[in-house]
Write a structure and sequence with these properties.
Length: 57
């Protein structure tokens, strides 16, 4: 289970993961401007990094 958690946290640190999630939301009808896209990807990457920094080993 720890390996899965590490894998997911590693993927969440990649901007492409966040851009993919935003694309899925857009396909579902959620409107996101280009400025919001960049801000969401940056914030998501920072959040994943913070989670990784405070998580156990």
């Amino acid at each position: 289970m720890t390996t899965l958690k590490q894998y997911l946290l590693a993927r969440l640190q990649e901007k492409s993961t966040w851009l993919g999630l935003i694309a899925l939301l857009s396909a579902a009808g959620v409107a996101v401007s280009p400025d919001q896209t960049d801000a969401i990807a940056t914030a998501g990457t920072a959040l994943a990094g913070a989670l990784l920094a405070v998580s156990k080993g």
